[in-house]
Specification:
Elements (H helix, E strand, L loop, with lengths): L1 E5 L2 E7 L5 E5 L10 H7 L2 H9 L5 E2 H8 L3 H13 L3 E6 L2 E6 L1 H5 L1 H11 L5 H19 L13 H8 L6 E7 L6 H6 L3 E8 L2 H14 L4 E5 L12 E7 L8 H11 E12 L6 H6 L8 H8 L4 E9 L11 E8 L2
Parallel strand pairs: 7-8, 7-10, 8-9, 10-11
Antiparallel strand pairs: 1-2, 2-3, 4-6, 5-6, 11-13, 12-13
Helix pairs in contact: 2-6, 3-4
Length: 337
């Protein structure tokens, strides 16, 4: 059997008994290939729901069984079946295991698209998604009192200077996602932009920012209370989207980045500043971090299917100080024209 590539598709040429060469086209080279075990795993409605619940967001076994109203042993059995097909990955946080879709599944676009389309045919999918949103709100409320900015854990002045050195040009409309208490970056952007949308999910932060803006008589900054994955602004409405020190709080980093790119005009700029990957597990409890930072390859993977290209990336080491700080990572991304 001879194997060769033609127009990015894999073909096999096999000589049969008559001496005739028969050409068979097989699928694109994706990590997960169709087989009986795979179809057996995804043909069950509960497992299909689990996959779509985990599409972009991690959950524990206990959270899954609550959303699906099934026994925990059943939830574990379904997860084991899906994991055996390399559809899931898990990470440990103390005694808890968080499950999410595997990188292999995200890279197997034909399989993932088939799963998503099949899920859309389920009559109770809206009920499932409603329970997912309720669980995310519950999780966010548990963490909301613990949110801190990176000035306490790694986002030094050095990192901010590095970021803004790449952005010192005027913008028509900038969106500061996760503006945080005081809205410091939004206020800085107000001097460079005609309009700034300052977005944060916490109502007390938005209320406090409105008071600051009134006291300073700043009229071109508009506070918006919203989740970072569902911002009530039109498509292609911003020249600059800034995501500073917020992605490690995202239930779904891919959904958050997708939303940021959605807001950009063609050739607009996304500036991302966050913690570089680290092992400080206690920050989950003390600061409400969902992700322990990101390495360059992970961010590149999250961006690879979005309509944008990476212009620059940098890991910024923290300066010496009394308190332990962590390095930050910076990405400058441009939306495709």
């Amino acid at each position: 059997m001879t194997i060769y590539l033609k127009t990015n598709k894999l073909y096999t040429t096999q000589v049969i008994s008559t001496g005739v060469h028969v050409q068979h086209q097989t699928s694109h080279l994706e990590p997960i290939q169709p087989n009986l075990e795979l179809f057996s795993a995804i043909s069950d409605e509960v497992r299909l729901k689990i996959l779509m619940i985990l599409d972009g967001t991690e959950f524990t076994v206990n959270e899954l069984k609550e959303m699906l109203d099934i026994h925990q042993s059943n939830a574990s059995r379904h997860l084991a079946k899906l994991s055996a097909c390399d559809l899931l990955k898990d990470r440990r946080e103390g005694t808890k295991a968080f499950y999410g879709l595997s990188d292999d599944l995200y890279m197997s676009q034909s399989i993932l698209e088939m799963i998503r389309k099949t899920y859309e045919q389920l009559p109770d999918k809206d009920i499932v998604q409603s329970k997912v949103q309720e669980k995310l709100i519950e999780r966010r409320n548990n963490y909301s009192r613990k949110f801190h900015k990176l000035d306490e854990t790694g986002g030094s002045l050095k990192a901010l200077i590095s970021l803004f050195s790449k952005l010192m040009i005027p913008f028509e409309h900038a969106v500061d996602i996760g503006c945080g208490e005081g809205g410091d970056l939004s206020l800085m952007l107000s001097h460079q932009c005609r309009q700034v949308s300052a977005v944060d999910i916490q109502p007390e932060i938005i209320s406090g920012l409105k008071k600051i803006l009134a006291d300073k008589n700043i009229t071109n900054v508009h506070p918006i209370e919203a989740d970072m994955t569902r911002i009530p602004l039109p498509d292609s409405s911003a020249d600059l989207v800034l995501m500073s020190q917020v992605l490690h709080h995202a239930s779904s980093p891919w959904e958050a980045l997708k939303e940021g790119v959605r807001l950009l005009k063609p050739s607009g700029t996304l500036a991302l500043l966050d913690l570089a990957q680290h092992n400080e597990e206690e920050l989950r409890e003390t600061h409400g971090h969902i992700w322990l930072g990101f390495d360059q390859k992970r961010i590149e993977f999250l961006l690879k299917d979005l309509p944008c290209k990476i212009l620059a990336t940098e890991v910024i080491t923290s300066e010496e100080c009394e308190h332990k700080k962590l390095p930050a990572i910076c990405f400058i991304v441009k939306k495709n024209p």
